Amino acid sequence: MVVSNAELHQDLRTAVGEICRRFPDSYWRELDAARAYPEAFVKTLTETGYLAALIPEDYGGSGLGLMEASVILEEINRAGGNAAACHAQMYIMGTLLRHGSDAQKREYLPKIASGELRLQAFGVTEPTTGTDTTQLKTMAVLHGDKYIVNGQKVWISRAEHSDLMLLIARTTPLDRVKKKTDGLSAFLVDLRTAVGKGVTIRPLRTMMNHATTEVFFDNLEVPTRNRIGEEGRGFRYLIDGLNAERILIAAECIGDGRWFIERACKYANERIVFNRPIGQNQGIQFPIARAHVSVESADLMRIKAAELFDARRPCGAEANMAKLLAADASWEAANVAVQTFGGYGFAEDYDIERKFRETRLYQVAPISTNLILSYLGEHVLGLPRSF
Questions:
Q1: Is residue 385 situated within a structural domain?
Q2: What angle do CA 212, 217, 222 make, to 5 degrees?
Q3: In CATH, what number is assigned to the domain containing residue 312?
Q4: Structural domain total, the chain
């Protein structure tokens, strides 16, 4: 039987929604208070195969497209959860899938698909370089059949809850390359054996429960067989996966936006002040309606970007626009929800303040809205490079 995309997406929404109902608001609220990782949720999502959506069937995955993966993550956030606890596995895996050797794919992808291994950590950002990846300082120096890695990464989420890390390090010093994007390489680091033997992970407490850390590398030995692709081409491999990241994050923001709007509408219908539901007042009704328009508009760009990605067509502009529009829409919806709930919007028991903090992140990470505008200005509109 041929299943249409619409039917497939609805089936995914229904199935993921059923899983999320096992993990209600109280589950996420308690984790947030304890700053704990949603181990049970991630385990369930893995066992049911949803984190392996993008892994080909030959390696034990579902072989679905990015559109389907985005629906899965959207539905988690729409149900009140936080897909950031596990979303990186989808787009980090793409680097291994597209650029890894046959031996690497055979060794790792089936175990990632089954949940035997977690690939949740992405070692790119550094304290002194931020988004300017070409300037990163972490060095991997070749010695025989291994690289010796020294340096530091920051804002590395889920490193304490991952078996593997995709690490970007410089293998040729910046002053010895013709182009600043050259000389970076990608590695798979086995954190199970590296922690305490060249890797130190230090948690960073942040505004939201995001399992964020800083990671230190002190003469870490990484076998050459763990390098992904060619030496010096890591920046290209990194860029290759960013469009998927942007689209998946956009989907999460859309899920957040719909959650905020649904909660705001429900509360506005039920809350009686001056003998009438507050949703009857245009001062409450109009901002919710406008936020709804913003979320639905962003969703159209998400769909366009995902369809282009799955068709293997250029989608850099669309992926970036989807992320920007969705992040702005979810943040608008978050503010509307707080305003609708009034004082209760700040109370933990209503979960608005938790989701408010979570969705605020996407104005800044994994790429700030200003850098997206800079990219569009230069690469889409032909304006002079600003930095």
A1: no
A2: 115
A3: 1.20.140.10
A4: 3
Q: CATH number of the domain at 224, please.
A: 2.40.110.10
Give the β-pairing of 119-123 and 139-143.
unpaired
Task: Tell the residue number behind the tokens 């590395």, with chain if given.
Answer: 156
DSSP 322-376: HHHHHHHHHHHHHHHHHHHHGGGGGSGGGSHHHHHHHHHGGGTSSS-HHHHHHHI
Regarding whether 102 and 65 lie in a shared domain, the answer is: yes
- Amino acid identity at 124: V
Q: What are phi and psi of 159, to 5 degrees?
A: -60, -30
Global pTM reads: 0.95
CATH number of the domain to which 95 belongs: 1.10.540.10
299 neighbors 74 (Cβ within 8 angstroms): no
* Residues facing residue 123 across a β-bridge: 167
- Structural domain boundaries enclosing 57: 5-114
Contacts of 189 (CB under 8 A, 6+ apart): 123, 149, 164, 165, 166, 167, 199, 220, 222, 226
Same domain, 267 and 329: yes
Query: Does residue 221 sit in the same domain as residue 240?
Result: no
Residues 343 and 364 in one domain: yes
Residue indicated by tokens 């409450």: 284
**In angstroms, what is the C-alpha Rg of the chain?**
21
Residue that finishes a domain, picked among 92, 114, 136: 114
User: Angle of helix 234-270 relative to helix 282-310, nearest 10 degrees?
Assistant: 150
Q: What is the DSSP letter of 276?
A: E
Q: Does 387 map to a domain?
A: no
Is residue 65 in a domain? Answer: yes
Q: What tens-digit pLDDT sequence spans the chain (387 residues)?
A: 445 789 999 999 999 999 999 999 999 999 999 999 999 999 999 999 999 999 999 999 999 999 999 999 999 999 999 999 989 889 899 999 999 999 999 999 999 999 999 999 999 999 999 888 999 999 999 999 999 999 999 999 999 999 999 999 999 999 999 999 999 999 999 999 999 999 999 999 999 999 999 999 999 999 999 999 999 999 999 988 899 999 999 999 999 999 999 999 999 999 999 999 999 999 999 999 999 999 999 999 999 999 999 999 999 999 999 999 999 999 999 999 999 999 999 999 999 999 999 999 999 999 999 999 999 999 999 999 988
Give CA–CA dist 93/113, Å, rounded. Answer: 10
